[in-house]
Write a structure and sequence with these properties.
The chain is of the alpha/beta class. Strands 2-1-3 form a 3-stranded parallel sheet, with helices on one face. The radius of gyration is 14 Å and the shape is globular. The chain is built from 4 helices and 3 strands. Strand 1 (29-33), helix 2 and strand 2 (62-65) form a beta-alpha-beta unit.
C-alpha cells in the first residue's frame, strides 16, 4: 500500500500523489470518501464534496464520491468489492470521529 498524506486538500505537491498511479491519464475513476463531513447540512456537504471533485478533476483525474453510508449494515465484502475497482482512494478530511464511525459501520 502506498499513501499520500496532505494536511490541506491535495497539498503543495499533488504530483507526488499522481506518481502513486501507474498512468494518471488512464487511471479511470478515483474514489472520494467524504464521510468526515457527514455532520454538515446536506447543502454544505454537497458543496464541500463538489470542491474536492473539482480539485481532483483539475489534476486530470475522474473523481466520483463513494459514500460509505450506502454500505452501513451490509457485509464487509460489499465495501471491499466497491473499493477494489479504484486505483486511488481520496479520503477527505473533517471530523475524524464521524469518519471513524462511518468506517466502522460500513465494514
Amino acid at each position: 500500500m502506498r499513501m499520500y498524506l496532505s494536511s490541506f486538500r491535495t497539498g503543495d505537491h499533488p504530483e507526488r500523489m499522481l506518481a502513486l498511479l501507474d498512468n494518471p491519464a488512464d487511471a479511470g475513476e478515483v474514489a472520494v470518501i467524504a464521510n468526515a463531513i457527514d455532520a454538515l447540512s446536506c447543502i454544505e456537504r454537497r458543496a464541500a464534496v463538489e470542491r474536492e471533485l473539482s480539485a481532483l478533476a483539475e489534476l486530470g483525474l475522474r473523481p466520483v464520491e463513494l459514500d460509505l453510508r450506502a454500505f452501513f449494515g451490509r457485509p464487509p465484502t460489499h465495501i471491499t468489492a466497491a473499493l477494489a475497482r479504484f486505483p486511488l482512494i481520496w479520503v477527505r478530511g473533517g471530523n475524524v470521529f464521524v469518519l471513524r464511525h462511518a468506517l466502522a459501520l460500513s465494514g
